[in-house]
């Protein structure tokens, strides 16, 4: 499912992600791995308008457009997940995860989320320094705010994400309000400090084991923000932070989750080719494609 959406953050360009990844051969990688591919095309949605309704008293940018687009995506991923398929969502900025995860969670109530990102994206309308909704999808999925922006009314009919069913991997730029919320809720959070200290192998084993309640397997959703990778390898993204994953660390996360047999859905987001020269843009698009391939079972041996 293509989600050419950029209104959850201030920079244009993430809307080009689906087309570029398809044109560079994403579908060929999927079919070579012996998956049966159903290309659902790109979802269509309204752009923000000057007279869109707003949440009075809160600086939420383009909330109505974000909410309506995510509702469409939630309907799409719910249908796919309910029929036992693997929803693969190509973004788009990370605000779209609100829609993709809401729909899948509705179909798979025991869903666990692995959120790979330099940022926690758990700000609320009350704590967000910027008002950009790509930094808030987790808070809305968990119901951490009483604010219901216009366009978000549909979310009240969807199940809430339990904090114990979420793990962050790769954090290195976390706002003060987010840090407090992660601690308060006891969310599993593996920052780059943990990756440096224990290695990505041990981090992934601890993460996966934490999701196995009584040894029982469960569906996992991987929400992969390309900015988790160091900008030396993924320069074409909007919120770069130095000190990210190496190429092998980035791939290992996807490879290890694929190996569990529990990975049942994925987002790849925040590829923005307009924010780098052509070589950097091409490298970032290629990396996004290869990460998807790793998540779908591509191996070195």
Question: Main traits of this protein?
Answer:
single chain; 301 residues; alpha/beta; 7-stranded parallel sheet; 9 helices; 7 strands
Task: Tell me about this structure.
There is one protein chain. The chain is an alpha/beta fold and 301 residues long. The protein has nine helices and seven strands; from the N terminus they run βαααβαβαβαβαβαβα. It has helices at residues 17-23, 26-32, 63-82, 97-107, 137-142, 176-185, 192-211, 247-260, 278-295, and strands at 2-3, 88-91, 112-116, 166-171, 188-191, 220-225, 263-269. α5 (137-142) links the parallel β3 and β4. α3 (63-82) packs parallel to α4 (97-107), α7 runs parallel beside α8 and α8 runs parallel beside α9 (278-295). The chain is globular and about 55 Å long.
Write the layout of secondary structure elements.
Layout (H helix, E strand, L loop, with lengths): L1 E2 L13 H7 L2 H7 L30 H20 L5 E4 L5 H11 L4 E5 L20 H6 L23 E6 L4 H10 L2 E4 H20 L8 E6 L21 H14 L2 E7 L8 H18 L6
Structure described in brief:
By secondary structure, the protein is an alpha/beta fold.
- The oligomeric state is single chain
H/E element sequence:
EHHHEHEHEHEHEHEH
How many whole angstroms does the radius of gyration measure?
18 Å
Main structural class: alpha/beta
Please outline the major beta sheet: 7 strands, parallel
Q: Give me the number of helical elements.
A: 9
What distance separates the N and C termini?
A: 29 Å
Shape: globular
Strands, total number: 7
Helix content: 25-40%
Quote the average pLDDT. 96
Strand order of the largest sheet: 1-2-7-6-3-4-5
- Content of β-strand: 5-15%
The low-confidence runs, each spanning 5 or more residues with pLDDT under 50, are none
